[in-house]
Amino acid sequence: MSTIFEKLLSGEFPCAKVYEDDLVFAFMDAGQVNDGHVIVASKKPYETILDIDEETTQRLFLVAKRIAHVVQDVFKAEGITLLQANKDAGWQSVPHIHVHVLPRYKNDGVELVWPRKEPGIERLLELAKLIKVPSI
């Protein structure tokens, strides 16, 4: 079963592309949060950040950064939000890796809220010991 992004890329569904190369493509989100809301997606149908190869990861975020600069300039954004969600519990709505580039403005009505937990430094130190990140 192909995702909506695969259908956009193949031309089965129309889309307003703003960028395309051998690994990623970017297009205007049909559900614009603010004018200039762009989605950057991999061409290969990787589902999440946990599945994607390193070269595509680098390209995805480099293109998102470049688009963020252009969107900020063109739409005079007061800020930019990048959103990359994974799996249902992580708010992923399409099972195909993508990054939202959202131009933001003070009082634009866009909210991203979650309950803050403040466990204290001792617990944070315990949690940090569990995370062993290999060097790049």
From TrEMBL:
SUPFAM superfamilies: HIT-like (SSF54197). The active site is at residue 98. Residues 4-111 form the HIT domain. It comes from the Bacteria. GO terms for biological process: nucleotide metabolic process. GO terms for molecular function: catalytic activity. InterPro entries: Histidine_triad_CS, Histidine_triad_HIT, HIT-like, HIT-like_sf. A motif (Histidine triad motif) lies at residues 96-100. Gene3D superfamilies: HIT-like. Signal peptide: none annotated. Pfam families: HIT (PF01230). This is HIT family protein.
